[in-house]
């Protein structure tokens, strides 16, 4: 089934695999204690690209994603009730580890957003809206960060999302 959030250019790149177009995978980590989001790109050099207009931080701005070796593994749906991906970032050293240590001292979740870019078009991500997940478990040392990220506890979400009160909707009071 086609993914409607993927832009046409990315669909073509996946389908035809042209040698002059590289898909650049990026991750953005956000937490209330971070002064700025941690932005990484899976490449050998830093990437300056434009965020989507609806980005939670720096919407529509050109930002720099720092080159890091990272990977993510899709969930094994046969073994888990909640689908989670596993993100691994290698050689973190002093660049990212202090942020993770700081976030571990709070009860707030770290959010991670995945954005694919095309090397031929850095004017915006090729997935709109980008995929945003919540990190549920994270382990870190000076060599590697391993995190499990998912959609959070959907069963604990309020439904309907809007509270209908007679103050906001006077027709409810009769």
Task: Summarize the amount of helix as a percent range.
Answer: 10-25%
User: Which residues sit in consecutive blocks of at least 5 with pLDDT less than 50?
Assistant: none
Count the domains: 1
Count of alpha/pi helices:
2
Q: Round the mean pLDDT to the nearest integer and report it.
A: 83
Got a strand count? 9
Structural class: mainly beta
Distance between the termini: 47 Å
Strand count, sense and closure of the main sheet? 9 strands, mixed
Strand order of the largest sheet: 3-4-2-1-7-8-9-6-5
β-sheet strand percentage? 25-35%
Principal-axis shape: globular
Detailed description of the structure:
There is one protein chain. The chain is 12% helix and 34% strand. By secondary structure, it is mostly beta strands. It has one domain (8-172). A 9-stranded mixed beta sheet has the order 3-4-2-1-7-8-9-6-5.
Spell out the blueprint of helices and strands.
Elements: H1 8-16, E1 23-30, E2 38-41, E3 47-50, E4 62-67, E5 70-73, E6 84-90, H2 93-104, E7 110-118, E8 131-140, E9 144-150
Parallel strand pairs: 2-4
Antiparallel strand pairs: 1-2, 1-7, 3-4, 5-6, 6-9, 7-8, 8-9
